[in-house]
Amino acid sequence: MALFSIPHIRISGMAACVPRNREHNSEYHWISKKERDLFRNTVGVEVRRVISNGTTTSDLCQFAAQRLLADLAWAKEEIGLLIFVSQTRDYLIPATSGILQDKLGLPKSTITIDINQGCSGFVYGLSIISSLMNSTGIRKGLLLVGDISSLNTSYRDKSTHPLFGDAGTATAIELSEQAPKMSYNLEGDGSGYDAIIIPDGGVRNGLSKKSFDYRRYGNGIHRNNLQVALDGVRVFNFSLREVVPNLRTLLTFTDRTIDSVDYIVFHQANKLINETLRKMLKIDPSKIPYSIQKYGNTSSASVPLTMVSELGKELTSKKINLLLSAFGIGLSWGSVLLETEKIICPEVLEF
Amino acid sequence: MSIEEFITCIENEFEDLKPCTLKPSSNFREEFEWNSIHALILIALVKIEYDVTLTASDLVKLQTVQEMYSLIRSRVKT
Fold first, then answer.
1. B3-75, superfamily in CATH?
2. Mind listing the pLDDT tens digit for each residue in A7-50?
3. Yes or no, beta carbons of B40 and A234 under 8 Å apart
4. Per the omega criterion (within 30 degrees of 0), is the bond before A305 cis?
């Protein structure tokens, strides 16, 4: 458990970008209409935005960052730090953050760092950029978070293909002596590393001819070892076991109640998971924004995408208290309690 | 919680189940077209109603409503 607070950090703006291309789960004919309808009603995904023509996560993040920097009127020379959080990077090597530094026209003095995190990536990334800016005195930083998980799913895997969508986001972070502290509770359990995994293509299990062989793992689940395997029941139970205690511990640490928070933004894992968490926490539905119906599970991008998509008006017009909770692959999970006030937040962009 | 209450709870959750059809001896997988999403719905229901976790191996082992009821009862925190 890592419970800590970071002072003097302000979120100045957020932007999110999704591919223009839509895939409707009503047209996912690998499964029967009855099963499709059950999936749409229970898991909650109606439409997913899916990349085409070789678009990468960094392209989506770059587009979001360019718009955000223009709206903020930030000079590129002022940006001292760029952190890119993703599990779908441009190349095995080198890191993608350096490529983004160049494409965004940032100076050589901008520190660039890649972080390999999925579902919990925004909360982890925010904690790292905030603490690094706090300790170094860097005044302006960019947190670019996103994934194109659709690339890694098998069409013939009903547990993943209709679930994942693609998105990239950009968050502008500023050092500000007046900013209220953010408080975090970050946790992880590496023993669950194989609950969500692409087994081959890394160093442990290199690419081989067998990596491309499709196997049947259950009714409606056919995939190869270069595609994501999701152990649904294990991930479901992990989420129900860990998220609520994580949030309660953070609230106790900060001497706050859940009623004092305006919105709780959950990782858009699956509507059934999030609704079960909501009922366990006894939270009014009006406090839980959802974007999963429009975009699917967008992995690391889902928390900032939901903020931009569902809370854009509130973010731009007033002060709001937010509890962000992200959980999944790793296994990794974390939450942050923070306040935003009249930030720059354009509507969701299309690429 | 009686087994009758447990059965009502399950029947209310699954649209495909006709009321008053499920019995303690019923195999819930055979009552309608069971799939992996039904498993998640059942896990969520049991977690919310009884604060009990059902694992994947529990679901493989359990056959009847009575077996599930007994397992949940044995795990309910008093």
1. ACP-like (1.10.1200.10)
2. 999 999 999 999 999 999 999 999 999 999 999 999 999 999 99
3. no
4. no
